[in-house]
Amino acid sequence: MSKEELFQHELESLYRVVGRATGYWANYYLRSVRKNGAVLHAKKALSKIDTTQGGFQTLIEVGRPELSMEYSVLKPEFKSLFTEIEINEAKRRLSTVPEYAWRKEVEADQNFSGDIVDNSIFTEGAKKQVTVNSYERCPKARQACLDKHGYSCKVCGFSFLEVYGEIGKDFIHVHHIKPLAGISENYEVKPTKDLVPVCPNCHAMLHTKSPPLSIDELKSIMVKSEG
Asked: What percent of the chain stands above pLDDT 70?
C-alpha cells in the first residue's frame, strides 16, 4: 500500500474514531476526504493559514487534539507527502493547543472521580482544594441523564439493583463526557448528551487520563484485558 493510500485510510479512520470518542461526526470532512482524496483535502485545509478550523477547535474542546488531521500530517510516515509550508502550518496549529487539552496520566492518589460532598477536605491541618463537577452533582441534570440512559454502567453494564437488590436501587455515578477545562462559563450542559451513567470503578478508570478516556476507549481496554 502506498503512502497516499495509507494516509487515505488514516483520515477516513479518524472520522469513525472521533465520532465514537467524542460524539462529533464530521460528515462534511468525510465527504471531502472521499471526494478529493485525503492528501488533497489536507493540503487545501492547511492552505487556509490563520483560519480557525471548526473541527480542529472541537477536538481541542473535547481534549483530543491527537485525533486531528494536523497531527496525522506530522507523523513521520506521512510528512514526505507535504511541503515545508504545509508542515509548518500543521505545527503552528498544534502549538496553539492549550496544555490542558493534551492527555496526561493521572496518578491514583489524585483521581477524584467519585461523588464528593464538600468542595474541600482537610488533612493533617492543611486545606486541600478538590475540583468537583457541578454538572454531575446537579440533581436535575443527573435525573435527566438517568431517565435517558438508565442506571446500568455504560462501560461494563454493571447494575447495582441487579447485584445488591433494593439497597442498590437508583445508585450509580454520572460522568461528564466533555472535559471541564474546555467548557466556557456560558456553556449550557445537555444532560442526555453530555452525561452518562457509570459505576464507580469505571468512573475512576475513565479519569486515569486527563482529559478523561472516552467510554469506547475504556470498553476497548476491558476487552483487550479479558482477551
From this structure: 81
